[in-house]
Amino acid sequence: MLPGVFALCWLVGLGACAVFVQQPHDVVVVAGQPVTLPCSITGFHGMVLWVKDGLALGVNRDLSGYPRYDVIGDHSKGEYHLLIQRTELGDDGSFECQGIQAGIRSRPARLTVLVPPDDPVIIGAPIVSLRAGDPLNLTCHADNAKPAASIIWIRNGEVLNGAMYSKTLLRDGQRESTVSTLYISASNIESGQRITCRASNKAAPNGKEATVTIDIQHLPLVNLSVEPQPILEGNLVKFHCSAKANPPVTHYRWAKGGAVIRDVLGDSYEAVVDHSFFTEPVSCEVTNALGSTNISRNVDVYFGPRLAAEPQSLQVDLGSDAVFNCAWTGNPSLTIVWMKRGHGVVLSNENTLTLKAVKQEDAGKYVCRAVVPRVGVGEKEVTLTVNGPPTISSTQTQQALYGEKGQIKCFIRSTPPPDRIAWSWKETVLESGTSGRYTVETVSTEEGVISTLTMSNIVPADFQTIYNCTAWNSFGSDTEIIRLKEQGSLRLAVIIGVAVGAFLALIVLMGTLGAFCCARLQRNLKGVVSAKNDIRVEIVHKDHNAAREPEEHTNMKQMMMERGEFQQESVLKQLEVLQEEEKEFQHIKDPTNGYYSVNTFKEHSTPATSQPAEVRNTATATLGKQRVPTGMSFTNIYSTLGPGPNHRLYDYGGRFVLGMGSSSIELCERKLQRASLSDSSSFQDTQCDSSVSSYSRPDNGYAPFDKASKASASSSSHHSQSSSQNSDLTRPLQKRMQTHV
């Protein structure tokens, strides 16, 4: 059918049958890209005109006014396509293709040119700085976009919501600018984070991005360390100041107790600590561009007590209260003790010491003492002065030489000082100066006042006179009576003391010589081995029953003669014991220091043994304690003492006792020779025990130990020795005292 139409149009005339085979249509193009608007007219060979928004662009292929525009296609086929190269926003509009001779036009075609936004811009990028604690406000704008750009914010791959948008139409009426503002609280932002602004529209569907880095600036964050702690005063300690800051640290400054340490500039400081470091902190100040941070530390330094509040001495009236205050510092915690000087009683453990209703005896020096365990001790002394009547303390009997100048002294303690001091005797009263043979002088000392009455020539009547020393002050008075004694009696006491000392020295010398002789004898006795035995010295009442002594001595002597073995071995042991005792007495004048433990014994119920005959000698025995001479055999000892009325030798249950008058020395053999004594009925194989009483030879037998009688015996120990000699010779012995050394 179409060829038939073309043939008909050919017959009718030129252009009578021209039709659009292709017409332009709406096109959307991104600026900068080419676009072709099609136009094809069949059966038309006249002029073709392109019109944009009602304005002709040119005829046929002549578009000289628009260099980016071209009409392309095969004209012989009626193709007049419009090519726009590198489209611009100005190309946006309505286009038509017209056949002028044929009087035909195409439908209008809308060319829409899209413009992508410019690269987005974040204000302050690429690094946005803010102070720590401040919120973050970011602004991003995307300009010159058609249509207007859309903006989103992204952090760590996540879209941040809450941004605010605004659009602005540009002067060309086609493009727009978009602005987006993002608010982030301080708690939701960290330094170093990256936040992206992405802008997109139809021309740039993938969008364009801009990124910013968040830089949170802050004052220096400071940490001050102290090593070592705790530390003893006088040792070295190191301070280290570590800081984190943005911007970086520019300066360090050190101070102690507020005073700047100018010679230290770095981040470390070393010092030898004392007590002040405990109360005065060391500070480190770190500075950067934003400002400074200061931090301080006290040192846990151990130091001894130091006085914080010094106590003051007090002067109070009699009967008033005295209150002392004392404060100490120390580390670790200290203990405060209040004491009176010279007394061991703790009066208070508080800072305050209160003495209620003071008396004159309360006067004196008081000590406030502070103790820091394992560190040190400190103390402060104060004086309490009690206002009251004078107190006189003087010797009531004072001495002087007949015919010489004599003095009587009166010592007065008085607060306030005495107003008046007077001496009086017989009818005479003298306060100061000289009156006849008498002169009064008064001297003040730190402890009190000394008033001296001087007599120029002592006469016998002076020793019979009573002297009064009286002192007065505003609170009252005190009087002391003083007597004068002739000084000759003192000389006699000195002479007696010297004589006693010489006598004791002679005894020590004799003991030393005896020990020397015994030592020489011991070196000559070879092969004899003995052990030291206990020595018991007994002080006993003299036994006046002389009828039994000869028989007892006779039996003992016979037994000793039969036991020659005892004479050789056991006696040698006794001599060695005596030698050891002599050595002890060289160094100890009185082993009991004047105190004797005296035991009293009651009678035993055991019948008395037969009495040996008493061996007598012409030698005279000495009363009291006598020592057996050392360096002699037992036989020689016996022969030296001789058979006399005061020398007796007894066998007391395995102990040999050499009796001498009212005293006896018991030679105690702990281990008797079993081999040599086993067949004797007179000796027992027993050990000596100092805790068991020795034999007492009353008429009716042995006396058992009585603890109850021990106390009564102690009080009578001094009288026992002297009374034993003067006792009734016919009275039987009821009690016996012994002293153990």
Please characterize this protein's 3D structure.
By secondary structure, the protein is α+β, with helices and mostly antiparallel strands. The chain contains 9 helices and 52 strands. Strands 13, 15, 16, 19, 20, 22 and 25 form a 7-stranded mixed sheet that branches. Strands 2, 5, 6, 9, 10 and 11 form a 6-stranded mixed sheet that branches. A hairpin with a 2-residue loop joins strand 45 and strand 46. Helix 3 (488-524) packs across helix 5. The longest helix is centred in the C-terminal third of the chain and has 37 residues, at 488-524. The protein is rod-shaped. Mean pLDDT is 74; it is low at 1-8, 10-15, 526-554, 556-573 and 585-741.
Layout of strands and helices, then pairs:
Elements: H1 2-12, E1 19-22, E2 27-30, E3 35-37, E4 40-42, E5 48-52, E6 55-59, E7 69-72, E8 81-84, E9 93-99, E10 104-105, E11 109-114, E12 121-122, E13 127-131, E14 136-145, E15 150-155, E16 158-160, E17 164-169, E18 176-184, E19 194-201, E20 204-227, E21 231-232, E22 236-246, E23 251-256, E24 259-261, E25 268-272, H2 276-279, E26 282-288, E27 291-297, E28 301-309, E29 314-317, E30 322-325, E31 327-331, E32 335-340, E33 346-348, E34 352-355, E35 364-372, E36 376-387, E37 391-392, E38 397-400, E39 406-413, E40 420-425, E41 428-430, E42 433-435, E43 438-444, E44 449-455, E45 466-473, E46 476-486, H3 488-524, E47 536-539, H4 549-562, H5 564-587, E48 598-601, H6 634-641, E49 647-652, E50 655-660, E51 663-667, H7 674-677, H8 708-715, H9 717-726, E52 736-739
Parallel strand pairs: 2-11, 13-20, 21-28, 29-36, 38-46
Antiparallel strand pairs: 1-4, 3-8, 5-6, 5-9, 7-8, 9-10, 9-11, 12-14, 14-18, 15-16, 15-19, 17-18, 19-20, 20-22, 22-25, 23-24, 23-26, 26-27, 28-31, 30-34, 32-33, 32-35, 35-36, 37-39, 39-44, 40-41, 40-45, 42-43, 43-44, 45-46, 47-51, 48-52, 49-50, 50-51
Helix pairs in contact: 3-5
